[in-house]
Please model this.
Amino acid sequence: MPLIGCIADDFTGATDLASMFVRGGARTVQTIGVPQRPLEFGEAEVLVVALKSRNLPPEEAVKQSLQALEWLQAQGCRQFYFKYCSTFDSTAEGNIGPVSDALLSALGSDFTVACPAFPENRRSVFNGYLFANDVLLNESGMQDHPLTPMGDANLMRVLQPQTRQRVGLIDYRTLRAGVEATRQRIAELRGESVGIAISDATDNDDLTVLGAACAQLPLVTAGSGLALGLAQDWKARGLLGAGSEAGKLDPGWGRQAILSGSCSRATLAQVEQAAAVYPAFRLEAGELMARGDELLAEALAWSAEQQGPVLIYASSPPEEVRRVQQQFGTQQVGERVEAALAAIARALVDEQGVGQLLVAGGETSGAVVNALDIGGLRIGPSIDPGVPWTQTLGRAGKPLALALKSGNFGSTDFMVKAWGKLA
Model:
């Protein structure tokens, strides 16, 4: 039976989490939504259900998360993991708090931790404050996020209005004191009627301690970093069997393509470098709103004439995004960009022989996997921390090699070096 069942609030976050488990030596399969048809899991030790719930109304996010929990319980999972972004993306209404509350209630539990830290990707929590790229979250660029702007780095203040639970803190001093001290702190917090504890973590050693201390909790909530700590604990207890073979995939085939809808700083730098190396076609959002189908046809005709990897992107600087949103509406622009890149992905795979596809952006990735009717993913080798290559499951025809990249993740040369990581 799987050791843990995970519920991720977006698709790239799900692959990020899954890659951390693979790195820890756990065979991992990711599903695209709650499976509606049989999938072959083999000897998977971790199951990850990828939802697209981060920006849904809280009640809908709760509903979908509980459906995922029910399915994971039916697969025999022993422990559960609610995964959100390492930048704690949420609004004053949720969805991190409401989903955590609902999962705790469904599991009959009174306590969980909340730890978005992923130190290797420069996301750390210190005294309850979240740092991204070595600055406070609200100074990192996340304050300009078009859907979940983060104006406060204090996670206790961010989470408390969203949850019915009392919010507490497991600080770095406790973690540095070791596993038993952390377990004792958890017991103290429970005695004080704290239901969710923000946990510090500034390096992987902190995550290792936290993972061992949380081994008996029915539910943990976190970014992807805590997966390393949990996997270390399983390995120490002799529960893992795959080791270095956990991330092995079949060789890649077919043409190579990159689709990018993210407007994060990291992705903009990656697109700039990739566009200097590969043929590139830009889908300018305003033009897409004005003449969508015509522009899509132009992009596909252009792609068919190119050799080697191609880059098709709608990524734009924040000020340009705001201008187009003000003209056409935030939701309308987002939906149009997602639909356009999803349609292009389907045409690239079905008509132009693309078998290796890299997608940048959480919302874009969700739209693409839905358009390609992918039932699940077998998780393979990492390109950069939190971004693995995967192999599709449950799709007619030859399996695709697919990489789904969160907007903020990856080095500047990510889109150039990715192909060399695929056997």
